Each structure stands twice: as C-alpha cells, then as structure tokens.
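User: Here's a structure from my thesis project, written as structure tokens. My advisor, Dr. K., wants to see whether a designed sequence matches the one we expressed. Can you design one independently, without my sequence as a hint?
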C-alpha cells in the first residue's frame, strides 16, 4: 500500500505586505512583502544600502513605515498589528533583536547586561516593590534562572562577572546575542551577527545560531554579508536591492537567479561568494 506522507506547510509567524518606508526623498523600502515561517532561518541579503537594516528596524518598531502592513502571529495564532506597537511591546510579544553595532552597556557586567535583556518581562515597580516584596523576590529569582540558563547555553560562564567593554570583540557579539536570547524570543532578528569576526569566532557563532534555532525552537531572521554563512545556515533567502525584494527562495535558487547576479555585479568580493 502506498504511504501518504502529508507535508504540512509551516505556520506563518510574521507577514510584511507592501511595506514602504522613506526618509524625505530617500526610499529605503518600496513595496516589500515577505513572510517568516515558523522554525525557519530566513536570511535577508543584498548590497550595501539595500534596506536590510531598515526592514529589521520596521519589524522591531524602531522605524514606522509609511505604507503597508506588518503582522505578527503569536503561538496561539492571534494576530498583532506591529505598526501600532512600540518597540518594548514588540519585544514583549516575543520578537528580539541584536544590533549591527553592539548595543551593550560596556561598563556593566555580562550578567547585568543579560538581566537588562529581560527587563521587558519584569512587572515590578516602586509600588509593587513595597507592597508585594515577596512577589518581587520570586520574580527576580525566575529572571535570574533564565539568564543563567542563557549563560550556560552560550558557554560564557567564565566571563559572567566581567565588564563587557573588557571582552574581545567576538565575545561581545556573543553577549549581544545573549541579551536578545534572554528575552525568551519566538523570533530572533540578527543584524550581521558575524561582522568583524575571525573564522573561528564565525564558526562558533554559526553553531550557536543553529542550536538556538533547533534546540530552543526559535525562528531566526538574519542579515548577513558573508554569503558562505548564508548558504550554510539559512532555509530561505530574501534578496533586497534598492529597497525592493528582487528574489525569494532557497539559497541555491537565489544564487542562480539572474536578478541577484545582476544586483551583485560590480562587487567582486560579493560575486566571488555567490
Ligand atoms: N535613519 C535614517 N535616515 C535617513 N536615511 C536612512 C535612515 N536609515 C536608513 N536610511 C537610508 O535607507 C537606505 C537603506 O539603508 P539600510 O541601512 O537599511 O541598508 P542596508 O541594506 O542595511 O545597508 P548595509 O548593508 O550597508 O548595512 C539607505 O539609503 C540609507 O541611507
């Protein structure tokens, strides 16, 4: 008897429809539509100035596009209009991000930076502190437990008490990843997590990204210039050029797409990697 294997389409967790973002006369994004599917690693690639960071900024609420729709579906399937939410609300929904230029407090320890990563989940304030001290204590312990779990996961136990500014660049990038992970995200937005790293650091980072995706069940949207990394890590790729989506598909499909090759022509370093 013939076996019927049903191939279930993964759920869509984030959908952008016809996004348009401009700064005065500069169009950063034009008619950008894409979806992020549950459990995938989606890479956003494109030449410099293509609009990659602007897109992540729209998703995390830092930029407000003038056109289009941006919707997040939570684990229960509820729809959330991200264009109506502030960055902290978006983070609380389960969308965390790391930044291209590390955005950590350099004089604070690794542990404190990671605790700050959880602040959007913290309920306590000056009133509840006084009235419900025990509740505050319980909450604090739980946050600390989750942060310690991230520290173990990223293998940074030995630097947990060190000020971030004293760490090597590659480790700072790992702490930046930890800060985003401490938020317990459903979707992690990573803006060039391997930029400026040596080969060994890149390999470590690639392993952590895969483990976060597979073991911690986190959907990942990744901006990356290193095409080798993109080809190895991602399930699907969206290619932006001059603020427009010019291709979407598997790494192999986009690599052979004539529009993508055209967009990268002129940049020999990028072409070599394609
Ligand atoms: N805050 C801003 N004010 C004015 N223009 C901006 C702003 N942010 C982005 N832009 C413009 O939008 C366009 C897209 O920039 P963006 O940084 O999103 O590209 P990118 O693909 O991330 O580039 P890179 O690979 O160099 O980081 C560029 O022309 C940029 O100058």
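Assistant: Designed independently from the structure alone:
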């Amino acid at each position: 008897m013939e076996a019927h294997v049903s191939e279930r389409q993964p759920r869509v967790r984030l959908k952008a429809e016809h996004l348009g973002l401009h700064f005065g006369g500069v169009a950063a994004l034009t008619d950008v539509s894409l979806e992020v599917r549950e459990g995938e690693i989606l890479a956003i690639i494109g030449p410099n100035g293509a609009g990659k960071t602007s897109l992540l900024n729209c998703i995390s609420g830092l930029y407000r596009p003038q056109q289009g729709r941006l919707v997040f579906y939570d684990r229960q399937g509820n729809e959330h209009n991200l264009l109506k939410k502030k960055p902290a609300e978006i983070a609380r929904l389960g969308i965390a991000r790391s930044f291209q230029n590390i955005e950590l407090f350099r004089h604070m320890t690794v542990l404190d930076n990671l605790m700050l990563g959880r602040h959007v989940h913290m309920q306590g304030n000056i009133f509840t502190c006084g009235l419900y001290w025990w509740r505050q204590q319980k909450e604090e312990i739980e946050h600390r437990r989750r942060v310690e779990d991230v520290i173990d996961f990223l293998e940074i136990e030995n630097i947990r008490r060190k000020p971030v500014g004293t760490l090597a660049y590659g480790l700072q990038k790992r702490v930046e990843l930890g800060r985003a992970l401490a938020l317990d995200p459903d979707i992690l937005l990573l803006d060039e997590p391997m930029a400026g790293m040596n080969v060994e650091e890149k390999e470590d980072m690639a392993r952590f990204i895969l483990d976060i995706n597979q073991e911690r069940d986190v959907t990942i949207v990744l901006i990356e210039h290193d095409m080798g990394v993109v080809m190895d890590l991602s399930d699907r790729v969206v290619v932006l050029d001059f603020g427009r989506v010019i291709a979407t598909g598997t790494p192999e499909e986009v690599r052979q797409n004539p529009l993508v090759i055209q967009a990268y022509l002129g940049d020999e370093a990028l072409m070599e990697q394609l």
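When you compare it with your expressed construct, this may help: The chain has two domains: 10-94+186-274, 104-184.
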